[in-house]
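User: quick one, sequence for these tokens?
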């Protein structure tokens, strides 16, 4: 891929352009008094940084209209094994003096394919029968109810067997939706705990924070993103928030976010702050 910027560096510095660009960049950061590095940086910038440790190898992805969302079917048996990639990442970087911590993932896309109006539940419904998420849902119901009659009584339904019980497709004040949220929240917390444990097995001295889930306080995002803060607190050393400030924060989003996390007594790290003003 052609890069006009890189071409300009080559014309300016010659064959040794990369090393000279690096020194110039470090010098500028010093002059600008920027004392930490952003996401996807490394110790070469001579500033404290955090690294992402998400990894799931060849775990099957959840399909969408335009291909694959990039989100793994976390219920697939291969997922637990494949998070070993997180341990490998920790092994490579644990001796870097500039590394100050880990994030167990970035913005994972748990919500679904919002560009096509498909939340994650609908994507699973539309996916092939081989998706492990479908069978995991049935297993969770069987663990929660003694038999299909007990489920029907609680739900007010008439299912003939567990095999015919689908995930509810949208938010509602109902037992099916409540059971689905419990299923979703516990599954996400468990799977992030696997990442946490994989990192901890290689690096015992640094904090390993949750992934950034963004907005939890508008519409159905709290449920859709699969993030229950108290369960995440049990599977990480703290929270990575990645906040976006909109104007004067009229909905008190940032206040709610910080207040909801502060009570857990764990570090809160807004590693990425963005300010958006209406004018």
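Assistant:
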């Amino acid at each position: 891929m052609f890069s006009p910027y890189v071409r300009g560096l080559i014309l300016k510095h010659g064959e040794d352009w990369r090393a000279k660009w690096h020194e110039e960049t470090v010098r500028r950061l010093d002059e600008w008094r920027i004392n930490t590095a952003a996401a996807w940086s490394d110790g070469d910038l001579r500033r404290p940084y955090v690294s992402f440790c998400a990894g799931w190898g060849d775990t099957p992805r959840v399909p969408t209209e335009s291909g694959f969302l990039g989100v793994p079917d976390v219920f697939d048996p291969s997922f637990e094994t494949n998070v070993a990639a997180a341990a490998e990442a920790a092994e490579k970087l644990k001796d870097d003096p500039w590394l100050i911590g880990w994030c167990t993932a970035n913005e994972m896309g748990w919500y679904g394919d919002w560009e096509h109006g498909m939340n994650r539940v609908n994507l699973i419904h539309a996916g092939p029968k081989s998706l492990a998420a479908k069978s995991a849902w049935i297993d969770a119901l069987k663990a929660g109810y003694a038999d299909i009659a007990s489920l029907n009584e609680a739900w007010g339904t008439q299912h003939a067997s567990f095999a015919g019980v689908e995930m509810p497709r949208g938010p509602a004040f109902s037992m099916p939706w409540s059971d689905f949220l419990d299923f979703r929240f516990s599954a996400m917390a468990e799977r992030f705990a696997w990442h946490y444990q994989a990192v901890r097995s290689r690096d015992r001295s640094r904090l390993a924070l949750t992934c950034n889930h963004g907005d939890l306080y508008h519409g159905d995002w709290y449920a859709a993103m699969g993030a229950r803060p108290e369960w995440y607190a049990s599977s990480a050393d703290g929270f990575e928030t990645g906040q976006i400030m909109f104007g004067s924060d009229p909905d008190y989003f940032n206040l709610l976010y910080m207040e909801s996390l502060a009570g857990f007594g764990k570090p809160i790290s807004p590693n990425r702050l963005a300010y958006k003003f209406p004018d």
